[in-house]
Each structure stands twice: as C-alpha cells, then as structure tokens.
Automatic annotation (TrEMBL):
<keyword id="KW-0004">4Fe-4S</keyword>
<comment type="function">
    <text>Catalyzes the complex heterocyclic radical-mediated conversion of 6-carboxy-5,6,7,8-tetrahydropterin (CPH4) to 7-carboxy-7-deazaguanine (CDG), a step common to the biosynthetic pathways of all 7-deazapurine-containing compounds.</text>
</comment>
<keyword id="KW-0460">Magnesium</keyword>
<feature type="binding site">
    <location>
        <position position="39"/>
    </location>
    <ligand>
        <name>substrate</name>
    </ligand>
</feature>
<feature type="binding site">
    <location>
        <begin position="49"/>
        <end position="51"/>
    </location>
    <ligand>
        <name>S-adenosyl-L-methionine</name>
    </ligand>
</feature>
<feature type="binding site">
    <location>
        <position position="85"/>
    </location>
    <ligand>
        <name>S-adenosyl-L-methionine</name>
    </ligand>
</feature>
<feature type="binding site">
    <location>
        <position position="43"/>
    </location>
    <ligand>
        <name>[4Fe-4S] cluster</name>
    </ligand>
</feature>
<feature type="binding site">
    <location>
        <begin position="24"/>
        <end position="26"/>
    </location>
    <ligand>
        <name>substrate</name>
    </ligand>
</feature>
<dbReference type="GO" id="GO:0000287">
    <property type="term" value="F:magnesium ion binding"/>
</dbReference>
<keyword id="KW-0411">Iron-sulfur</keyword>
<keyword id="KW-0949">S-adenosyl-L-methionine</keyword>
<dbReference type="InterPro" id="IPR007197">
    <property type="entry name" value="rSAM"/>
</dbReference>
<feature type="domain" description="Radical SAM core">
    <location>
        <begin position="40"/>
        <end position="114"/>
    </location>
</feature>
<feature type="binding site">
    <location>
        <position position="209"/>
    </location>
    <ligand>
        <name>substrate</name>
    </ligand>
</feature>
<keyword id="KW-0671">Queuosine biosynthesis</keyword>
<comment type="pathway">
    <text>Purine metabolism; 7-cyano-7-deazaguanine biosynthesis.</text>
</comment>
<keyword id="KW-0456">Lyase</keyword>
Length: 209
C-alpha cells in the first residue's frame, strides 16, 4: 500500500472496507431490527471459530474514502452497525462523526482488544480469551456477548461480566458449529443464572446475511 494511502487509513480518513449491506440484525439486544452493516477488514485476534476469517487480512480489502462509506450507509438506514474483522484496529472517529452529523445511530461490534475510538450509541462487546478487552471498553459496553464453544466458556463469561457496568446486558451465544451440543448447556445455565440472556444467530436461521 502506498505510504500516502496508508497514512489516510491510519488517520481514519480511509478504511479497509470488506463489505456493506442492509439486512436484519441477527444477534443480541437489537435482533430483528433493520440495520446497515459496514464490515471493516483487519483483525489479529484470530478466533479459531470465526465465521468471517476472510476479514482478517486488511490488505485484501480496498481502502475506501470514509465519506463515501457514510454516504452509502445513509441511503439505506439511520442505524449503522460497524463490525469486522476488528473495527477498532482503526480510528473510528471520522466515520462516527460523519454518521452522527447526519442523525444516524452508531453501533459497533468489537472484541474490545484495541482502544475505543469513535462516538457510539451502542457498544456490543464480545471478548476473546486470546486478546482481552481494554478496561475502557468494559466500562462503556452496553451489551456483553460471550460465545460458548465448550463448558469452560461459562467461567470465562462470568469473569467478563464482573468487569462491565451494571447497565450492561449480558448474553451467552452458542458458537454456530457446535450449537446443537451447547444450546442445552446454555439454556440450563441461563435458567440457573437469570442475569444472563440467550442470544442466537437468528440471521443464519433466516438464511440472510
């Protein structure tokens, strides 16, 4: 990548855009609602069960003018979900300023592994064992979504829940490839620990992006 373009990316004036699409939010607190998704490339957290591994290498996704991303998004919705990859790899300030200046609500889905940038109306924190969230992200998270792949993930989820604020909504979500095995475990756990809620990837059941 040219140095001049790399500087624009580093400053958040351009972002490695993997894809953008209008769909129904499938997970967590806002499931079932229409939203425009902006998927930013680049992630070094490297979850083995990630279902968007093609997002990891930012070099595969064209640096796109942030103003163009804003204009495209606002044609479809006033609820914009920024996801990845790991969007906080990059400076989200300019993107969120552009969206909010037009009256949009800004949501982010993040592992929290990098410092929080941008202005957000909703922060969905999905922490990963291999690279834990920054303390500032724990404190500002509106939603904690812990993925359950095996029984040890319940202990991890509880440790993460201890770090978020009282207003944060707590979710346990089955990892898709083992959902038949772990859904009964999650149901049982939530019934015994009702501070948690169950999150399902309903968009996969609906066969939509």
């Amino acid at each position: 990548m040219q140095k001049s373009i790399q500087k624009l990316v580093n400053d958040g004036k351009m972002l490695p855009l993997m894809e953008e699409f209008y769909t129904i939010q499938g997970e967590g607190y806002h499931k079932g609602t229409a939203a425009y998704f902006v998927r930013i490339g680049g992630c070094d957290v490297g979850c083995h069960w990630c279902d968007v591994k093609e997002s990891w290498n930012a070099d595969l996704h064209p640096p796109t003018d942030t103003n163009v991303i804003v204009e495209n998004a606002l044609q479809y919705s006033d609820v914009i979900v920024v996801t990845g990859g790991e969007p906080l790899t990059w400076d989200m300030t300019m993107l969120t300023q552009g969206l909010k200046s037009k009256g949009a609500k800004t949501h982010i889905e993040t592992s929290g592994a990098y410092p929080l940038t941008g202005e957000w109306d909703w922060i969905c924190l999905s922490p990963k064992k291999v690279k834990l969230p920054k303390e500032e992200v724990y404190k500002k998270a509106d939603e904690l979504k812990c993925i359950v792949y095996n029984k040890s993930d319940f202990e991890f989820a509880e440790r993460q829940a201890d770090k978020v604020s009282d207003h944060c909504v707590l979710y346990l979500q089955p990892e898709w490839s083992v959902r038949e095995k772990v859904i009964p475990l999650i149901v049982d756990y939530v019934m015994k620990n009702p501070k948690w809620k169950v999150s399902l990837q309903t968009h996969k059941y609906l066969n939509i992006p």
